[in-house]
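Following up on my earlier thread - several people asked me to post the actual chain instead of describing it. Fair enough. Here it is, all 545 residues.
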Amino acid sequence: GRTAAGVAAMGMYPWLMLGGAMLGLLLLSYVIYHYFADPQESYLLAMVAVVLSLTVSILCAMLIPVDIYVISEGSITSEALHVTISQDHVKDAYLVLFSLLMFLAFGLVPHAYFYGEEKGSGDFDSKADARNCTTALRSTVVFVGFILFLLIAGLNFRPGHTESLDGIFSSEEQAARWISDLVDAEHHGLDAMSFSIACLTFLGVVGWVFYTAYGMAAMPFAWLRGKQSATEQRQDLEVSIASIRERYRSIQDKYPAQEDGSIDLSRMRAADRKELNRLQREHKSLMQHNYKLQEIEQKAGMVIPYVLQVFVPFRWAIGVAMLSMSLLVNVSLLLTLVDRLLHSDCGWSCGYTLKERRIFNPADEIFLRLSRVFPMDFLVLGVFVLYIFAASVFGIVCLGVRICLCFGVYELRQRKSMPQALLVLCNVMSHILLALCMALLTIAPDYTSFGSQVASGGNGSTGRCSMVRQESRRDCQVSVISTFFTRIAISMPAFSVAYFFANWAFIVVFGCVFAHCLLSQQRQPYLDDVPECEEEELGLLSGFT
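Reply from S.P.:
Thanks for posting it. Predicted structure:
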């Protein structure tokens, strides 16, 4: 009885872990929304859309360890629940998650965004709310129709689509044949889905190159250096305030004072008058910061600073771990790109795909060695995925949501962000995490393609699986994610070439930001911005003497 109970418990353990991971991802997504969203502007639909979108996006990336486990160790079987997860089930899970991600990115999230734009900030009114929901739904339909038009146009010109558009109106049979070929009904829509995911991944590559590269370079230094304390920032502000007052007085001393001690502004040069106005605005802003920092110091007393000192060693350990992972990712990415550039058999025509790795790759070696101690490789890969997710969010928060990476649209601040900004954030993250799935195949190509599988030779020798061995032997299985993106690289090499050069751009951006952070000693301020204060509260705004 005890043995049977133990077996049942072991069978239930993976499913309990899966349930706990799902709850953890939902909680993480909710915490992100709650941390940034303005409580006065938040609404339920935005929260649901953000939580679901972020959770599904992370699940797409976290499915990769499960994919690798299935090809390395075989199907996952639970005798207690009579359930078996095979590679076919993993493939179906990818398709379901990718389809759900497309629905969220181009259905629910836009609807929640348009609803927020129509909602405004007035009091709740059931009739007005229904009208806003209808208007938002109409805008969403127009948006989805535009996206479908672009998708159909792209599918019509994708590689493998043979039917011409010329005879579509000639007969119903010709139209049905064109539609069947367009959606790739012969392969159950796999080519059409591959093209759609390739387009979404290409959009995510832009965010991957700038936001993720910036975050992976800057976030470790932010942890290592930490923020200024309230006292440190207030001391810096007081020095700046004293400097502004001195410059203000030096301009005033150029002109004689009237009988009441004031300066006649009409006799002042236009340049000096403009400079005085600028100094006054800057002085007011600094005084607002100073006033808020004094409030924080009074509330905190002298205990909090000493308590925070206890966490300094952990902050350094976390910062060093982040820096190590960032360097490992970029060095491995660089070595793989060089390997593909030098040793790809087909070069430009197939997007520099590589059959067998010839240059040492540290990330690949680490994961392959960790695979000998189950389940260390899967845990470390999960940590890598979550770290890259956190670095991407950090990059978006620091740089803001931008159009064409030049024009700022939204800024993300703690408890001050519009829900619409968070909806745009989760859509950007959805595309970036799709790009991450592709990038992992470059960071650790052998491990993400074959896991810990070993191929046996004819003379009794063994070796790690690679594309060369997989072609000659049947005992090497390729992961679903590798098969999917390799299919895209072969059938649509333009995407693969774009991914290849985008990874070079990623390394360039990372290197520039890393060098800047390494040379710069500036620490992040305790307060970035503060709300407007009344002048009576500040007290010192009226005079610079």
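Confidence is low (pLDDT under 50) at residues 1-10, 533-543. That should answer part of your original question.
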